[in-house]
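Ex. 9. Protein: Co-chaperone DjlA N-terminal domain-containing protein.
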Amino acid sequence: MENLPIKIYCLAADDGTLKAQEIDAISTLAKQLGMTDEKCQEILALYKEEEDERQKRIAFLFPKTYAEAVKAIDKHYGR
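Predicted structure tokens for Co-chaperone DjlA N-terminal domain-containing protein:
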């Protein structure tokens, strides 16, 4: 059951941001499922750490913006 809030955080942040209203709703649901506030905060902190690391990996693997990548491809193929 402890991984359920993490999955819900991921779904809530699917639009690119995790809003305060979404965090509150997830906390309320977790409480209804018997989870303590402390545990819910630990899970939120873990989610945020994982998201930060994911963003770092994306920036490392794809340092160029989409527009820069298209421009480089066009230049390579002489377009």
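Check your answer against this statement. Residues 3-76 form one domain.
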